[in-house]
Specification:
The two termini are 31 Å apart. The chain is elongated. It is built from nine helices and ten strands. The protein is an alpha/beta fold and 278 residues long. Helix 2 packs across helix 8. 33% of the residues lie in helices and 25% in strands.
Length: 278
């Protein structure tokens, strides 16, 4: 058997190991899952139905169904996701939060996506840049309340200045929506934004924008969990691996129009995630 096959079956066996038997776990308490519906297409509220929807919503349901645990969705602000986890108001959360060493000091993560940055331009503007080098010396907008301006300057230094070309001029917009407004009104030639939201923006504006180049600065995004709850981390890891193996994970990526670059490979099984682990 190939090494990849052994790994796949090992992950499936681990998923089965942590999957509760229906007869013996009828009284399993729900897991409270925190979400902040402000990050389409991961987390959002449908304006017609007022229901939570998105990739995170579907994935959380599939994960807990695989684990045999009822789901209790708890809507909260982004700033309260980690405090709510630490005070046990919720047991885990989704919101496309970057998995960083600083955050791992207080909570645990199971990575489930990766996000980067990507340029978009107007689709029907004959003067719009058609290649990445054409951005050099031009005005590009990005949200000033994020780390994107620093990333744009770094990209410009590496791909424009280092090539003896004029640097990109930064337009510090109020947010991503404002940056796209500046593009529509002709004040800038491109926008730099989150690569997870870029395809969704293009799909929902029907022909107005187009992607330019590939995503860069890919960073892992994690499901937040209590740092000390190793068993829950192992269960989530195993359930996610099972959803990746049976095609559910990639079907959801396609359903919510996420870029293929956002998908991650199955996580390796940690030593503590064994049949004899506490």
């Amino acid at each position: 058997m190939q090494t990849g096959g052994k790994r796949k079956w090992g992950l499936l066996a681990l998923a089965l190991l942590f999957m509760p038997q229906a007869a013996g776990h009828a009284q399993e308490r729900p897991l409270s899952v925190g979400m902040y519906p402000s990050y389409p297409p991961l987390d959002m509220r449908n304006p017609q139905t007022n229901q939570l929807e998105g990739f995170d919503v579907d994935l959380s349901r599939a994960l807990l169904e695989r684990m045999g645990r009822p789901l209790n969705s708890v809507e909260t602000s982004f700033a309260q996701l980690i405090p709510s986890l630490l005070t046990e108001r919720i047991q885990l959360f989704f919101n496309g939060m970057m998995d960083t060493p600083a955050r791992r000091a207080s909570i645990g993560f199971v990575d489930y996506l990766q996000s980067g940055l990507q340029f978009i331009t107007l689709a029907n503007d004959p003067l719009a840049p058609r290649s990445l080098p054409a951005l050099c010396g031009q005005m590009v907008a990005t949200s000033r309340i994020t780390s994107e301006p620093a990333s744009l300057i770094a990209w410009s230094n590496a791909h424009c200045v280092a090539q003896q070309k004029p640097p990109i001029e930064l337009f510090a917009a109020e947010n991503s929506a404002d940056a796209r407004l500046q593009l529509r009104e002709g004040r800038v030639v491109a926008v730099l934004q989150d690569s997870l939201t870029a395809p969704w923006t293009i799909a929902t504006t029907i022909g107005l924008f187009q992607l330019l180049g590939e995503p860069f600065e890919l960073t892992p995004l994690g499901i937040g969990l209590p740092k000390a709850d190793i068993r829950l981390q192992c269960q989530i890891t195993a359930a996610l691996a099972a959803l990746q193996a049976d095609g559910t994970y990639h079907a959801l990526i396609r359903k919510w129009n996420l870029p293929e670059s956002s998908a991650i490979a199955p996580l390796p099984t940690q030593p503590e995630c064994t049949p004899h682990a506490p």
